Amino acid sequence: MMASRKRGAARDRILAAADELFYYDGIAATGIDAVVDRANVALGSMYNHFESKDALVVAYLQRRDQQWRATWESTIADCVTPYERILAIYDALERWVSERGAEQGCAHVAALVQLPPNHPGVSVAYRHKAYIRDRLTELVRDGGYSRPGEIAGDLTVLYEGLLANMLVTQQPSAVAGARRMAAARLAGRAASAV
Amino acid sequence: MMASRKRGAARDRILAAADELFYYDGIAATGIDAVVDRANVALGSMYNHFESKDALVVAYLQRRDQQWRATWESTIADCVTPYERILAIYDALERWVSERGAEQGCAHVAALVQLPPNHPGVSVAYRHKAYIRDRLTELVRDGGYSRPGEIAGDLTVLYEGLLANMLVTQQPSAVAGARRMAAARLAGRAASAV
DNA sequence: CTCTTGCTAGAACGCTTGTTCTAGTGCTAT
DNA sequence: ATAGCACTAGAACAAGCGTTCTAGCAAGAG
Q1: Which of A8, A46, A55, B93 could form a disulfide with A51 if both were Cys (CB 3.0 to 4.6 A apart)?
Q2: Chain A residues within 8 A (CB-CB) of chain B?
């Protein structure tokens, strides 16, 4: 027993293949066979590691969630002022896009669109979005702003808008503009009535 | 000849059924049978009016495009100042949501996520998005603002963000906040560097 | 060496889907 | 009344899907 052989090497290849195919070709559109072929893995191996395609989809979404949290938190950690930490989400997105690309927008939004409501991946996607909003609210509150929930809501709209815009325009050019609008929102100019 | 019988009554029912099912359950997830059942129409009738499911999808997207343009333009027409006409897109969205709901976000964004790149519906979706951006640029230019393309790009991000946010939160609560950010953007506060 | 274990290759299944086809029905216009 | 046409009901087919199963291979542990 113990750690025998390269346990899980196939599992990693499967997850990497699923990530690319699910993200770029769509979850429903990619069959198990395509994942297995791309991962250079036998079909039986796939079902050894994942109970079903649904389970693979859940693992795919959880992996994306973890990866995004990691780059976001790492970007936050590089900031010195609370103000910068709030805007770090847009810098993290820019970094993410430059490293991995986001031509298909947000994978979790795509999951909400593609999956039936009772699919186990849907709750993963909702939790991902809830985390973003909650963490953002926390950062805004730490910055000493009043009504942190409202501000975080507005910043979330800008964040979601960027991701959707990338899917539509196939380029990340709007990040700078959104960051400026977020900064203006924090400056309180947009907080007063009309 | 001439207008014989209720020509196209079945066609309308098919399109109405497809609209609801494609939008709420997803395009790939809804089969032709489901559309036919909901429209109370025979399968053969469906293939009399539409060459294939792909053709039905195209018609569905074009119909949504036309409907959105109509409510947007009607909202624009009710405005008196160029400034109001620019922000009218958010008012139109609010009206659209209150009348029809948008729990699934933008149907054309959903199409980009769900359809393969060579699907004829994809170009319909791209054209829909290009129209929004172009019309918005036009409205901004008519308002006498400098760099109308950049401003329209930022307003588009806010618009896309609202739609994506509705899919995630299942409520249209963020419209007011986005409209205020758009107004602030037009006020030029966010246009200056940093 | 031998046994276990994770892997491979591929056939086979049951199910769903898009599409076509065949008959039969009822309204409309002439 | 009658011919034409859009419609209905449903069977049938091919293709693709997720899933299971069988059989064999290779490498580390005893």
Answers
A1: A55
A2: 25-26, 28-29, 104-106, 109-110, 112-114, 116, 126, 129, 150, 153-154, 156-165, 167-169, 173-174, 177-178, 180-181, 183-185, 187, 189-191, 194
- Spatial distance between the Cα atoms of B192 and A180, rounded to a whole number of angstroms: 9
Q: Average per-residue pLDDT in chain A?
A: 93
For the domain spanning A1-50, the CATH number is 1.10.10
DSSP state of A170: S
Length of chain A: 194
Splitting chain B (194 residues) into consecutive groups of 10 residues, what average pLDDT does each group show? 53 96 97 96 95 98 98 98 98 96 96 97 98 98 96 98 97 93 85 39
Read off the tokens for A192.
């007063």
What letter represents residue B30's amino acid? T
Domain ranges of chain A: 1-50, 59-187
**Architecture, CATH, for domain A59-187:** Orthogonal Bundle (1.10)
Q: Do B126 and A168 touch (CB under 8 A)?
A: yes
Q: What is residue A192's predicted lDDT score, i.e. its pLDDT?
A: 40
pTM over 0.85: yes
CA A103 – CA A31 distance, rounded (Å): 21
Residue B4 CB lies within 7 Å of the nucleic strand C:
yes
